[in-house]
Write a structure and sequence with these properties.
It holds the Pfam family ECH_1. There is one protein chain. This protein is an alpha/beta fold and 263 residues long. Strand 3, helix 2 and strand 4 form a beta-alpha-beta unit.
Length: 263
């Protein structure tokens, strides 16, 4: 059965994975994330693939989690249920993508909101279109940030606090200055520039690429990255208790309505 929300193709040792739900700004329901994880695994297991590119159809890279996905919702939602689902789809998936032993490049255009960060941050390189912006406004929900809490590592502690405290977007140029983005290119050139970068990397020795990626990732882990991501995920879950309360739920809906405005 063909994937519904994810495109996948390979050529010249490059696997291109495409988010293909542009009608809702590539908002992530469970099926999209499961298909995406399968595509990452497929590329990781393919000996003919040296580089993985993650891109998105449409105006925006991703509006984050789809809070109106239409998927069945139990009559009673508990924190344990939320924890189990988010642990698998948001934390484990993102960490698995980060650690696939092949270089990966995210091509980001338009808005990348909250859960969208969980898709691009695990990639080794990020190339942003000049119209791209990155934001995590979930403090509006009484939650301290998305599940894969890479903010401090990607932006530095003070910039991370500013973005979380205000909810404002980070522009592509600002993201490049912090080192979160490798380069900024004109929107019309995004796919071409990413393809050229992927082709350049694909000429390198596959084992050398694997070892280089492992060296950098392990250095970050020694510095505390992996432990921090795990522990902050548990902190994130306490915010759901607030969002599930009577006072938190209207705020949750307001955030969802804000996302609708970009679709």
């Amino acid at each position: 059965m063909a994937d519904k929300y994810i495109g996948y193709e390979t050529s010249d040792r490059i696997a291109t994975i495409t988010l293909n739900r542009p009608e809702v700004a590539n908002a992530q329901n469970g099926a999209l994330l499961d298909e995406l994880d399968a595509a990452w695994t497929r590329a990781g297991d393919d000996p003919e693939v040296s580089v993985i590119v993650l891109r998105a159809e449409g105006k925006h890279f991703s509006a984050g989690h789809d809070l109106r996905s239409g998927e069945p919702v139990p009559d009673k939602i508990t924190l344990e249920m939320i924890y189990r689902n988010e642990s698998r789809r948001y934390l484990e998936y993102s960490l698995r993508w980060r650690n696939i032993p092949k270089p990966s490049i995210a091509a980001v255009q338009g808005r990348c909101i909250s859960g969208g960060l969980l898709l691009c941050w695990p990639c080794d390189l990020i190339v942003a279109a000049d119209d791209a912006s990155f934001s995590d406004p979930v403090v509006l929900m009484g939650i301290g940030g998305v599940e894969y809490h890479g903010h401090t590592w990607e932006l530095g502690p003070r910039k991370a606090k500013e973005i979380l405290f205000t909810g404002r977007p980070v522009t592509a140029e600002e993201a490049e200055q912090t080192g979160m983005v490798n380069r900024v290119v004109p929107r019309a050139d995004l796919d071409t520039e990413v393809r050229m970068l992927a082709e350049q990397i694909a000429k390198m020795h596959p084992f050398g690429l694997r070892q280089a990626k492992r060296a950098v990732n392990q250095t970050l882990d020694v510095q505390g990255f992996y432990a921090a991501i795990q522990s902050v995920f548990d902190i994130h879950q306490t915010g759901h208790g607030n969002a599930l309360s009577d006072s938190g739920w209207p705020v949750l809906m307001n955030l969802d309505e804000m996302k609708d405005n970009i679709r």
